[in-house]
Amino acid sequence: MFDRYEAGEQAILVHINFSDETSKEDLQELQMLASSAGVSALDVITGSRRSPNAKYFVGSGKVEEIANAVRANSADVVIFNHALTPSQERNIEKICQCRVLDRTSLILDIFAQRARTHEGKLQVELAQLKHISTRLVRGWTHLERQKGGIGLRGPGETQLETDRRLLRERIKNITRRLEKVQVQREQGRRARVRNELPTVSLVGYTNAGKSTLFNSATTADVYAADQLFATLDPTLRKIALQDIGSAVLADTVGFIRHLPHDLVAAFKATLQETQSADLLLHVVDYSDDKYRENIDQVNEVLEEIQASEVRQLIICNKIDRLEGIAPRIDRDEGGMPVRVWLSAREGKGLDLLFAALSECLANNMVQYQLRIPPQQGKLRGAFFGLNCIASESYAEDGDWLVNVKLPEKDWQRLIKRVDSDLTSYLVRKH
After folding, report:
1. 82, 60 in Cβ contact below 8 A?
2. How far apart are the C-alpha atoms of 25 and 202, rounded to whole Å?
3. What is the pLDDT of residue 316?
4. 63: Cα separation from own chain's centroid
5. Model-level pTM?
6. How far apart (Å, rounded) are the C-alpha atoms in residues 351 and 308?
7. How far apart (Å, rounded) are the C-alpha atoms in residues 146 and 157?
8. 164: burial class by Cβ within 10 Å (0-12, 13-18, 19+)?
9. Are 258 and 25 in contact (CB under 8 A)?
10. Of 211, 258, 350, 372, whose CA is between 20 and 30 Å from 168?
């Protein structure tokens, strides 16, 4: 069904520098992506442009340079470090006479290689189908013909129309199955809430060391490697915290700049572990020169999956690669932990991480008393919907006096969701 190339293929990498900051990509990251996909990079073609060319993405002279490199190296595939339109892919393929992939296709291929669970494979297939559907409509012009043969001649469905229909049906089928998975995950989350088990979710840029930290903290045996997207399927384990008891630690897929939107949509069920977490451990590779950019990229994805309100604890990982940095906890003005410096690979600073987790989760709940007027019944209903009302009484003027206890993240989400200013109803904070 898919144009997956076998690991071990020989590739020409293409990286173009644009003056627009939002269009810039990282060449080193492309090389790591290619390596993670099992591709050998024979040559790297670089260039600069003000904006992409509509026909070839690059100029006609650069396309000839790429084609010459393909012939000189007997390359099997050309990989662009950018998103290409179906027509651009097709036009470049005609000149280079080999397969052309863009950044999105490469990431999807890596995900397809990494998927192990049934859910992970479904999510990857859905993302691939959505990506392929645009290539099917605009790229496969050879399918714009009537089906021939005995019993199939005459007016009827073209081959392209048949493929479109089959594609739509498959997408609907996978979407239904993933909705069932989403319901099952939601039931698991409700069970953890009923048991008052806080959830801590690991997030971070790909290859930041999340799985290594997960293994060190839980003595689990999750696959961890120095490559992009080593982890794809989420894993959950219980950890014991002082003064808190048991908590659930979730290892999730890593993020990357310009993560394909179809991929984010396909992994919605998985990413909900992040959205519903009580605390996010944002793992950052502080030995990477671009760690600030990586932090911004992760926060962008968290915003997209509506998890930006969840409280974060920054984990400054890989201090074993830095000189003069010892494990420590950085605190804010209120004395709460905001950063933990550690080395997941060497196990240094894990005791500080557990101490910080205990402090953060102990202060994760907020309690308020609110005075809600009768005309704000929808707001009262929102609190009932969150199942967070501890007690309720009536004031002499008919207002509701409501005592609520809920996670900080739910309080912040409610502030964004309701039209009115919640602080105007506050009587006191417990």
Report:
1. no
2. 25
3. 93
4. 33
5. 0.66
6. 27
7. 7
8. middle
9. yes
10. 258
